[in-house]
Design goal:
Number of strands of chain B: 4
Order of helices and strands of chain B: HHHHEHEEHHHHEHHH
Helix content of chain B: over 70%
Number of helices of chain B: 12
CATH architecture of the largest domain in chain A: 3-Layer(aba) Sandwich
Strand content of chain B: under 5%
Distance between the termini of chain B: 39 Å
CATH topology of chain B: ABC transporter involved in vitamin B12 uptake, BtuC
Oligomer: heterodimer
Number of helices of chain A: 12
Helix content of chain A: 40-55%
Shape of chain B: globular
Largest interface: A-B, 41 and 42 residues
Distance between the termini of chain A: 75 Å
Radius of gyration of chain A: 22 Å
Number of domains of chain B: 1
Shape of chain A: elongated
CATH architecture of chain B: Orthogonal Bundle
Strand content of chain A: 15-25%
Order of helices and strands of chain A: HEHEHEHEEHEHEHEHEHEHHHEEEEE
Strand order of the largest sheet of chain A: 7-6-8-9-10-14-15
CATH superfamily of the largest domain in chain A: Response regulator
Largest sheet of chain B: 2 strands, antiparallel
Radius of gyration of chain B: 19 Å
Structural class of chain A: alpha/beta
Number of domains of chain A: 2
CATH class of chain B: Mainly Alpha
Strand order of the largest sheet of chain B: 1-4
CATH topology of the largest domain in chain A: Rossmann fold
Chain lengths: 377, 298
């Protein structure tokens, strides 16, 4: 009898526990971003943006809390796959936001796809990320567009007839964007005089710089990330290679300015967002709150991080709040139309999962990022 | 490829190689004496960078003082690591010590991740090391001239210690037979600590020069240079100090020329460094300067 009472007591307590947790309604969302490693600045920035976004919209329409579970992928492919897998199978999240870089997102995507859980990336721009996937979408533009914008800028504004390209061989982002640029630039009539490769862990570019210098191009296109670009710029200037360095959205991080110092002055890049060109009411409110919290302007990664959050919450609302299935949420992510986000008006193509948006050109001037122009698709 | 570019690439290779060599000497010192491949060596190098960074950027010391203090502090850290992690395993199997070294490596990486965060820090480069000299179209970055000189000076100093002092004699004796040396009344633990101190001092020196050439430092930065320096040490004949320096130069020059001659293969240059290592070891299993495995070295 005593034993029976014990079991009864345990049963009652556990029932209370279970029911109480289901009464505090919440929607679990996994976030997989690099908080450490080579591209840590991106993940930390995006997380800042997402947190401000969450403070603006902490609950879904039905009153359930949005609970973000952040896992660090260290900027690595294996860790990304593990994190996505853990979030879906152990934490039972309804959706995953992540990852930052294209290669990492592509490592996590098949797992989301297999588990029929939506994965929304804030900034993976390689076209292959969403190719053939039903559950992977993004709130940013893709590299063929970004490469075209860069090529047009180099050709029309910088008036450069010859270019050298620096490709980070093991990053899908870099390879894809470089090819998009080369294709568009050649079509315009430009000439690629030197194609050079390197890999993520490289810090020494002296061999490539010496080769590029002997070919004397008018501009150097280096679609890579901030650390590589800043180290390259420093070494290039040391070797007397003073051409404009053109890059993609991977260049944009405070660390570029800090590591590069004077050497990165003039570095020009295509990106997603500029605080001065922010147009939507949501963007204005976001900028204000971001400034209040962090005493600075958000960069593209922060703005995109926020947009990923807003688009996802919007989809959760449409799908019915905490009762929504991942599949239903995915449907509404893919049918995002004219959503006025932080980085502009976002429309996601239901077939491809890609967002159609305008791009911004920014450059470094006197140790600061300044706005150059906006290019519409 | 004309002669100017060829010469330029050679300069690039020597400057990169001297960095590998500096770090490789520390590897070889420790291995030569206690037969431990100290996988934490690259991370100790990273610690040296962060100490110097802290001294210059956060405590506003003059650079030479910060660098010197960093090297001394890193030397003490090396001794501490040995006392806490490796000494209890002195008589255990080699694999246990090796696993411990990997553990120490993870510990240091994560400790510095917690303290300094994962975003790369900009290493402050003193004016003296920043510029470059142009000689008939061949660019010599100041740092590329200073590094090989520093590497050779410290190599000579090390050879002097090893061959002309009592401590050096004790170190060489230890590499033959630890137990016999102990019976001779030599304070073995003190000598091993000294070895770790010298090895870590040199790692910090290599780290600081590394950071001045590539001034973006993060807590995981020691991994790749550490592996390369390890390859350099093995290539040169692990246990031989001169061999380690030589191995560093060979790997540095080989890497630069692979990129220079076959640009499309540049993305795989690390693989080539290690392939090259395997190739050499096939013909000379003890490395270029390595001798009989049973004998003590340096």
């Amino acid at each position: 009898m005593k034993r029976f009472l014990h079991i009864l007591a345990v049963a009652v307590v556990s029932f209370m526990f279970l029911s109480s947790s289901s009464f505090a309604k919440e929607v679990k969302v996994g976030v997989v971003w690099p908080m450490t490693g080579l591209v840590a600045a991106f993940g930390q920035s995006a997380w800042k943006g997402a947190k401000v976004a969450q403070s603006m919209e902490p609950k879904a329409k039905d009153g359930s809390n949005i609970h973000l579970i952040l896992l660090d992928n260290k900027g690595m492919k294996v860790q990304t796959a593990n994190a996505v897998s853990k979030l879906i199978t152990e934490d039972h999240v309804k959706a995953v936001i992540g990852a930052i870089t294209s290669s990492n997102t592509m490592a996590g995507a098949p797992i989301a796809e297999r588990n029929k859980t939506p994965m929304l990336t804030s900034s993976a721009t390689n076209p292959l990320v969403t190719k053939g996937k039903k559950y992977v979408s993004r709130v940013c533009f893709i590299d063929p567009f970004q490469g075209l914008v860069a090529a047009k800028y180099v050709w029309n504004t910088l008036k450069a007839k010859t270019a050298a390209v620096m490709i980070e061989r093991d990053q899908d982002y870099s390879v894809g964007l470089a090819h998009a640029f080369i294709k568009a630039y050649k079509k315009l009539g430009g000439k690629i005089v030197s194609t050079n490769f390197f890999q993520s862990t490289d810090q020494d570019y002296s061999a490539q710089i010496s080769t590029i210098k002997s070919k004397n191009p008018q501009v150097i296109y280096m679609p890579s990330y901030y650390q590589e670009i800043s180290l390259f710029a420093r070494q290039a200037r040391q070797y007397g290679l003073n051409q404009v360095i053109m890059a993609g959205d991977g260049a944009e991080a405070e660390a570029l300015l800090k590591i590069g110092g004077k050497a990165v002055n003039g570095v020009t890049f295509t990106t997603h967002f500029d605080p001065h060109a922010a147009a939507t009411p949501l963007a204005k409110k976001f900028l204000k709150l971001y400034y209040k919290k962090y005493k600075g302007q958000p960069d593209a990664m922060a703005a995109l991080g926020a947009d990923a959050y807003f688009v996802l919450v919007h989809a959760i609302n449409e799908a019915g709040g905490h009762k929504a299935t991942p599949q239903k949420i995915n449907y509404y992510i893919r049918h995002t139309k004219d959503f006025k986000g932080v980085t502009g008006v976002i429309t996601i193509d239901p077939k491809t999962g890609n967002a159609i948006k305008s791009a911004v050109v920014r450059k470094v001037e006197n140790g600061k990022f300044v706005y150059v122009t906006t290019v519409n698709p | 490829m004309n002669s100017t570019i060829l010469l330029q690439q050679l300069v690039n290779g020597i400057s990169l190689g001297s960095l590998y060599g500096l770090v490789a000497i520390g590897y070889t010192m420790v291995y030569g004496v206690i037969r431990l491949i100290n996988f934490a060596h690259g991370d100790i190098m990273m610690v040296g960078m962060y100490f110097a960074f802290t001294g210059v950027a956060m405590m506003f010391l003059p650079w030479w003082a910060a660098f010197l203090l960093s090297m001394i502090a890193t030397a003490f850290l090396g001794v501490l690591v040995d006392r806490m992690a490796y000494k209890p395993l002195r008589n255990a199997s080699r694999i246990s010590a090796l696993i411990t070294a990997i553990g120490v490596s993870f510990f240091l990486e994560n400790l510095f991740l917690v303290v300094y965060g994962g975003v790369p820090k900009a290493f402050p480069v003193p004016e003296l090391f920043g510029g470059a000299i142009n000689i008939h179209g061949v660019i010599f970055p100041n740092i590329a001239i200073i590094t090989p000189i520093v590497a050779i000076v410290f190599l000579l100093m090390l050879l002097f210690i090893l061959h002309k002092t009592k401590y050096g004699m004790a170190m060489r004796a230890l590499s033959f037979d630890m137990e016999t040396v102990r019976i001779m009344g030599v304070n073995v633990d003190m000598i091993i600590s000294l070895v770790f101190a010298i090895g870590s001092f040199l790692a910090a020196l290599g780290g600081i020069f590394w950071a001045m050439r590539y001034p973006a430092i993060n807590p995981l930065i020691g991994i790749m240079p550490g592996l390369k320096a390890f390859a350099a040490a093995v290539l040169g004949g692990i246990g031989s100090v001169t061999g380690a320096a030589l191995g560093g130069f060979i790997i540095g020059i080989a890497e630069i020329f692979i990129v220079a001659i076959f640009p499309p293969l540049a993305g795989y240059k690390d693989a080539f460094a290690f392939l090259f290592l395997i190739f050499v070891l096939l013909f000379k299993p003890t490395g270029i300067m390595g001798e009989d495995l049973d004998r003590g070295r340096f």
